[in-house]
Specification:
Elements lengths: L10 E4 L2 E8 L3 E2 L3 E2 L2 E4 L4 E5 L5 H19 L6 H15 L5
Parallel strand pairs: 2-6
Antiparallel strand pairs: 1-2, 3-4, 5-6
Helix pairs in contact: 1-2
Zinc ion binds next to α1.
């Protein structure tokens, strides 16, 4: 599923701060290797893949990176595991069946 087809934005606002959203074919992190997404908290850039296996995986990757921005900008202390769980919870709630 292409992120462009999902209508993902080029910018998101977190605590009044604009994060640019970039889309790449591959995302490489020096510590983690190939990633599903990245959040550069210094440069205020969220990087996502141009394509994910499913719509839900794309949304979860986006929420995961948005959570990094939210937690940082609001000064919340949270483990990476909890951050990911919340991203998963939001994604599932937002993609709930309508019938
Ligand atoms: Zn993360």
């Amino acid at each position: 599923m292409k992120t462009r087809a999902l209508g993902f934005p080029d910018r998101v606002r977190v605590a009044g701060i604009i994060y640019r959203v970039e889309y790449r074919k591959r995302i490489w992190d020096d510590d983690d290797g190939l990633c599903d997404g990245a959040c550069d908290l210094d440069r205020k850039i969220i990087t996502l893949l141009r394509k994910y296996p499913t719509r839900e995986v794309a949304h979860q990757a986006f929420w995961h990176e948005k959570m990094h921005a939210i937690v940082t900008e609001y000064g919340i202390e949270m483990s990476h595991e909890d951050l990911d769980r919340i991203a998963q919870g939001i994604t599932q709630a937002e993609n709930s069946p309508t019938t």
